[in-house]
Design goal:
Elements (H helix, E strand, L loop, with lengths): L1 H15 L4 H8 L3 H8 L7 H11 L3 H11 L21 H15 L6 E6 L6 H11 L8 E5 L12 H11 L11 H12 L5 E7 L2 H4 L9 E6 L4 H7 L2 E4 L5 H12 L1 H6 L1 H10 L4 H13 L5 H10 L16 H10 L3 H10 L9 H8 L3 H13 L4 E2 L5 E2 L2 H14 L3 H20 L25 H21 L6 H10 L1 H6 L3 H18 L2 H17 L7 H9 L6 H17 L3 H17 L3 H17 L3 H18 L2 H17 L3 H18 L2 H17 L3 H17 L5 H11 L1
Parallel strand pairs: 1-4, 1-5, 2-3, 3-4
Antiparallel strand pairs: 6-7
């Protein structure tokens, strides 16, 4: 069994490291009992726990990959997305009592979703409180916990779109990516449907406003916990949310929290200095946590010395202050930062350039241009110092106040922020190119080597590729939105183009539309006709596939506007792309005109490969405008050329439109044979989109022949494939199946 395999591998790694169960528990922070259960095959770890174990064992990258593979669950698990609970949670007793009363409503027969919004200033502990309470209540909500950082107040990126958050929730609930609808409204309906019979805790962290969170509310019987710096009065009015105000700690609470971190004896030995420390922190939990972490790392440091150092730390918090309680928090960060070694300090500053909600170890190493072992050491140091935390996926999270402080340090130290951003963009682009070999049918342009210092992740199969893409999805969206500057324009365009294949294969058309828009904006600033044409084509395709074909005119016009400036091969592709898009808009005469222009350019420049591929579009358009014999002749010309190129996907498309022409000429048996040949070729290239198209055409021919049952089967199969790709036309095919009886 896979559980036993993981347990055996974990035990072997522990023994190689000459660690007892207790030794590994001390080094990782994971309990002896939990490690013992894993080694005996009784449980599998969540990703964050596994990361702690692998870090403590100091495994190399190959060993880590093997252990991650062994720990992957074989079947869908109950979602466990919560970040780890704080081991030394203290204070906020009034808020906890309020949350207990609110939670009791979810245990009853309430007809409404139970929603609590924890509101307060930055760093006051809203997330810590919500996550702590969710962990305490987990057993009472056995169907799992969902968590998302909505980035409502992220200075470097726009807040997370509700549709994107819903996509992550639906995947965690076991909905395949290809079954997730493209629109936020439809995703919301599906989310409420999937949660209607479940008892879940949903944590919506760092929300901007009511409009952002309202679509994310789960159904009756679930508990939704929201955190926000804003008082969500509208949510209370419209959704009956209970508002839980959170303020800084009173002095006794702050002292109790400091004692929990550094020991009561140490505080009792210097009570006045302990009181001064929490006063300098303004009672802000984030500041107390950072001070406590530094004092824990220096057990010989007197509290009186710490007070003196803090008072001397400059500059003060003026620029970050959102209320008088925070006036000295920058001093706390400064004191913690000064305790770092120079290499870790530089590493910390590099991380501040990452705009996403969380950073993987590989992305962090790329930002700082260090190798993986060093990156993991620096990440452990920063986590120990409470300047970073871990999420449920094992990624590293930096509080937005700390990121803002790190950004100030970058400016003050004169670091090359743009260089770090280039390495991040290159990491996301080049690894997407490598992983894309296993998931994408789109060819990519030749690319040079990545910038020095970029980590190249080893990917050997489709599952590893998909895992990498899924872990970096949020980062790519944030980077494309937030990373700006003239030196980065080319990198932004290249990144958007390199993720097209994954987005298309996963049916992430809504996300692709957003990425393509960002890429197109950068392409216009570069005034690069090739980049404008390529990103426009992808944007138009994404709009068509999300049911917004009318909106595709603008990017199509942008493509056509670049024609006079393009080299021959790109002019051929632009005309061919426009032909495809006009066909999707049911403007078949225009589509034929553009296909013929593409063919004429290819023939004039003796590009046999482009001639062969352009004949496909010409033949299809001829079939759609009723010139069936010409369509068949065009297809017969294209087949031997495509076979010479070993282009099975192209040949499959030819047999599909030949079948279409034969069917419209009344040669139904010939049409069925042509469609069947197309399907045979499609099976070889795993092209679900073309398979669905051909099944649709085959079903219509079979219906004409009187085989209603087989026609219905093919339409249902086609609808399933398009649903998997999140293409709205799936509903049309499903309706055809129902009509066939």
């Amino acid at each position: 069994m896979r559980d036993d395999t993981f347990g055996t591998m974990l035990r072997a790694a522990r023994l190689r490291s000459v660690l007892t169960l207790e030794g590994l528990a001390d080094a990782s922070g994971v309990s002896v009992r939990a490690i013992s259960d894993m080694e005996r095959g009784r449980s599998l770890p969540r990703r964050s726990t596994l990361s702690e174990l692998m870090d403590a064992l100091e495994l190399d990258e190959t060993e880590r990959r093997h252990l991650v593979q062994a720990a992957a669950p074989r079947t869908h698990q109950v979602p466990r997305q919560l970040p780890p609970d704080l081991a030394v949670f203290r204070g906020h007793e009034d808020a906890l009592r309020t949350l207990r009363e609110i939670t009791e409503q979810a245990d009853g027969q309430s007809r409404h979703a139970v929603v609590a919004a924890v509101c307060g200033l930055a760093g006051v502990g809203k997330t810590t409180l919500a996550v702590h309470w969710a962990h305490r209540m987990a057993e009472r909500f056995p169907d799992g916990q969902l968590y998302v950082n909505l980035r409502g107040f992220d200075e470097s990126a726009r807040p997370l779109e509700p549709g994107e958050a819903l996509g992550g929730f639906l995947r965690a609930l076991g909905v395949p990516s290809n079954d997730i609808p493209p629109g936020a409204h439809e995703r919301g309906l599906l989310f409420r449907e999937r949660t209607a019979t479940r008892r879940l805790i949903v944590v919506l962290d760092n929300a901007q406003d009511t409009e952002q969170v309202a679509p994310l509310l789960a159904a009756t019987g679930c508990l939704t916990l929201i955190t926000s710096r804003n008082q969500l009065f509208a949510l209370a009015a419209t959704e009956g949310a209970a508002l839980v105000g959170l303020d800084v700690w009173a002095r006794p609470e702050a002292l109790a929290a400091l004692e929990a971190r550094i020991g009561a004896d140490r505080c009792r030995a210097e009570p006045e200095a302990a009181a001064d420390l929490v006063a300098l922190c303004g009672g802000l939990p984030l500041a107390v946590a950072v001070v406590g972490a530094q004092l824990s790392a220096g057990p010989g440091l007197s509290l009186r010395s710490a007070v003196r150092d803090l008072r001397a730390a400059l500059p003060r918090l003026d620029a970050l202050a959102t209320g008088y309680h925070q006036r000295d928090v920058r001093a706390v960060f400064s004191w913690s930062y000064r305790a770092l070694g120079p290499l870790t300090a530089r590493f910390f500053r590099c991380l501040a350039a990452h705009p996403g909600p969380a950073v993987t170890a590989e992305a962090a190493a790329s930002l700082a241009a260090v190798n993986m072992p060093e990156a993991r050491r620096r990440l452990r140091e920063l986590t120990t110092a409470s300047l970073l935390s871990r999420d449920a996926e094992g990624r590293y999270v930096m509080h937005d106040l700390i990121r803002a402080y790190g950004g100030e340090l970058v400016e003050r130290e004169g670091d090359d922020r743009v260089g770090a951003e280039i390495r991040l963009l290159d990491y996301l682009r080049h690894n997407a190119r490598s992983a894309g070999r296993f998931v994408s049918r789109f060819p990519t342009e030749a690319a040079g080597p990545p910038t020095t210092g970029v980590v190249q992740v080893a990917v050997d199969d489709r599952e590893e590729a998909l895992d990498w893409f899924r872990r970096e999805e949020p980062a790519v969206a944030a980077v494309l939105r937030a990373v700006r500057g003239p030196r980065l324009l080319r990198h932004r365009v290249d990144l958007a183009l390199e993720w097209v294949g994954y987005n298309a294969s996963a049916g992430r058309w809504t996300e692709e539309a957003s990425a393509a828009r960002e890429g197109l904006d950068a392409a216009f600033l570069l005034d690069d006709p090739v980049a404008i044409a390529r990103t426009s084509a992808h944007l138009a395709r994404a709009l068509v596939e999300t049911g917004r074909a009318d909106e595709a005119d603008e990017p199509v016009d942008a493509m056509l506007g670049q024609l006079p400036r393009l080299p021959t091969d790109h002019r051929v592709r632009v005309e061919r792309n426009v032909s495809f898009l006009r066909g999707r808009q049911q403007r078949h005469e225009e589509a034929l005109e553009h296909a013929r222009r593409s063919l004429a350019i290819a023939r004039a420049h003796s590009r046999d490969d482009e001639v062969a591929r352009t004949l496909i579009g010409v033949g299809f358009c001829l079939a759609m405008v009723g010139r069936h014999e010409e369509a068949i002749a065009t297809g017969e010309e294209a087949v031997p050329m495509l076979r010479k190129l070993e282009d099975r996907s192209g040949e499959a498309s030819v047999w599909d439109f030949i079948g279409l022409a034969q069917q419209r000429l009344g040669r139904l048996q010939d049409a069925v044979a042509s469609y069947s040949e197309s399907l045979r070729l499609v099976e070889e290239v795993h092209d679900d989109y073309l398979r669905a198209e051909t099944l649709d055409h085959l079903a219509s021919a079979l219906l004409e022949l009187g085989d209603r049952a087989q026609a219905r089967t093919h339409w249902l199969h086609a609808a399933e494939l398009l649903t998997g790709l999140r293409v709205p036309r799936a509903a049309t095919l499903r309706a055809k199946a129902e009509a066939a009886g």
